[in-house]
Amino acid sequence: MTAKPQTGFFPELLRNQQYSGTISTLVYNWPIFAGALVFSVAAFVSSAFLAAAPWHLLFIIAGVGALLMMVSIVVASFFVYDFGRQREYDRLIELANLGEANVVIDVTCGKLRGTQGLLSRFDRGHYFVLDIYDPKKMPDAALRRARAMMPKLKTDRRIYRRSAKVDGLPIPHNWADVVYCSFSLHELYDADDRQKIFDEFARILKPDGKLLVAEHSRDVLNFIAFGPGAFSFFPVTTWHNHMAEAGFVVKHHERWRGLAHLWVAEKQSK
Question: Which tens digit of pLDDT belongs to each residue from 93-143?
């Protein structure tokens, strides 16, 4: 993987496993929170100088709205990623029954929260972390900050890290037991790139191998929770269509805490 973590306050803060999702949301998106806070303060100050209706009320509403958006994003992040004892990767492990898995392929664009979570539960076999980050195709500033600030992944001799392309994962045909993707695939904005990587998943998985996916969706609940940030997500049908076109059969799909979706799909035997 090409990104090198920084040393200092933020990486240490991000090592907090109990609140990793919430802290990541705050740290990686700090300009958004800072901007919303400045906007709120400016709106409240402006309202104090505009006694005439309706401007006084409108500025107050705007300031309160910005604050509520910040609170909503933090609360939603905590609820999806950090609430309770079970995380989304625990649920996927439970659904997929990974007791016999020997080769796990973890496909990420640099966000390692899900990787660290699954690794802590998978202490055998071979674990490949494939980094598909492409700065030209993934321009999100929050993703760049995530890659720069993420604490170094603890490795041992069974863990391998490699750079990869969506149309050529460096893994042999029919070799992997499990492919795992945690909140990274929505960074692929181009539909052709998304389909290419699902086709690659089908190529590298053994017959009856399992694909585990956790993703948000572009829907009303996510717009309420994350505001305009929900535009970076894709509808649920997008993921179903990519899986079906690549030859996967969805064995289980569920909504995770109202705001995310979990899939367990299998490669069809030929």
Answer: 999 988 788 999 999 998 889 998 998 888 888 999 999 999 999 999 999
For the chain, domains (ranges, CATH) are 20-82 (no CATH), 88-267 (3.40.50.150)
Give yes or no for a contact between 232 and 140, defined as CB atoms under 8 angstroms apart.
yes
């940030």: which residue's tokens?
229
Model confidence at 219: pLDDT above 50: yes
Query: With left for phi above 0 and alpha for psi between -120 and 50, is residue 206 left, alpha or beta?
Result: beta
DSSP3 helix / strand / coil % (the chain, rounded to 5): 50, 20, 30
Mean pLDDT along residues 215-236:
95
The three-class DSSP label of residue 53 is coil
pLDDT band for position 14 (cuts 50, 70, 90): low
> How far is the CA of 266 from the CAs of 10, 27, 41, 145, 202, in angstroms?
38, 35, 51, 34, 9
Neighbour-count burial of 154, counting CB atoms closer than 10 A to its CB (0-12 exposed, 13-18 middle, 19+ buried): exposed
DSSP letters spanning 122-182 = --SSEEEEEE---TTT---HHHHHHHHHSPPPP--TTEEEEE-BTTB-SS-TT-EEEEEEE
Residues sharing a CB contact under 8 Å with residue 139, sequence separation 6 or more, in sequence order: none
Locate the DSSP E strands across the chain. 103-108, 126-131, 159-163, 176-182, 205-216, 248-256, 260-267
**Cβ partners under 8 Å of residue 29, min gap 6:** 73, 142
Give residue for tokens 């993987």: 1
Give me 166's structure tokens.
């969506």
